[in-house]
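Example record

One chain of 469 residues, shown exactly as stored in the release files.
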Amino acid sequence: MPKLIPVVLVFAFLILLTSCANSQKITTLKPEPDDAVPLVYENTPSFINLPISIKLKDIEKKTNTLLSGLIYEDNTIEDDNIEMKIWKLAPITIENNHGIGEEKIKTILPLKAVIKYRIGTKKLGVELYNTKEFNLNGMVTLLSDVNLTNWKLNTTTELKSLDWVESPTMTVFNKNIPITYLINPAVKIFRSKIEKKIDESISKSMDFKPNVIAALEKICTPFQLSETYESWLRIAPIEIYSTNIKLKNDTFLLDMGMKCNMETLIGKKPDTKFNANTIILKPVSKIPEQITANIAAVSTYQEASKIMTKNFYGQEFGSKTKKIKVQNVAIWHKDSKMIIALDVIGSINGTIYLAGFPQYNEETKEVFFDKLDYALDTKNKLMLTANWLAKGFVLRKIQQSCRYSIKPNLEEGKQSILAYLKNYSPMPGVFINGKMEDIQFQKIQLTNQAMIAFIKINGTVNVSVDGLK
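Predicted structure tokens for this chain:
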């Protein structure tokens, strides 16, 4: 029995040696990440075309809301010898004048006017005046030139004709006496008042800014592209461009464009960057129909690490009896390179560090790491303890898993964006439609906190306003 004890000890010692040989602990120095600073990256502005169409009937409806009942009143006769009240008798109609080579709108205004006109003088403190009262009931036709200034549709209106529904009268001895042959020259007395009132009402009814700003605020509110990846699209407008307004048939057409920054962010819903006070409307002669959207897809290192950890799940690296399994992956930025930390178990236990440059494969839609190699300290430790792991063929096998496809993200992002181009209504009366071509990858930029993938999208966008609010 005592002779068996040394034998048992020898076997135990051999088992211990074998165990140590099969599983060695490696302790490597961690390449510390760069200091965490605010996320700053280069974003190429996007240009989005926003053609807006508004029907004349909407302008007509709003103008009638603004002009109702008594539309003008002047109760002071002393300043210009005229006292006047004008009522709108029926709804105003606004239509295209269809003139050759001109863009004018025609406004027909049914009205009633009571005008007091004072003739006379004041001499030596004695007033010698004769005041006449005119009762007018007719249909006024006005033509207006149209232009866009400082977000507003401005008109220059001219009274073209006045057709009397009833013969104009003058009150003489409490009786209404027809004075048709006298009143036409007197129309000049109040025509400027009518023209001005129409211009003011159309300008108020066609102030684009509240509608456009409200629509832009909705569009620029970050919206979720993917619930799975917690990705959000955020649009930050820089400038708004506009051509002059055009009248076609029964619709006003306004070509607008927006210069903006677009980005996708991972994680919780980001804050909006929309600020109505900084938006400026700049006039331009022409805006292209095709849009170009340059989107910065922000992928945090934490999120990328999760995806790569899934890629390594269940895989073994090595040969014969010398193998390792990757349990966890973490990546970060260091001196313009990506550091990839692999927590491994098996023949080697510990953390090995790789360094490389992220690249993108256009065909497979994958992010991979070029010139991937062990970090210097890791390589030295492996040469001493696990030369087999430091060899190139093992590294190449590991490199194959150090990649992840963003194709699902791109496709899901495309489908999410398309949903906002199919009669999407960010607010009542505003509808967005459009189409989008394939997403084109541009480049990758590294920051201290995330990898930024820049992509470009071409397409068209149309914004229609159906009923001004």
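Notes: The two ends are 102 Å apart (CA to CA).
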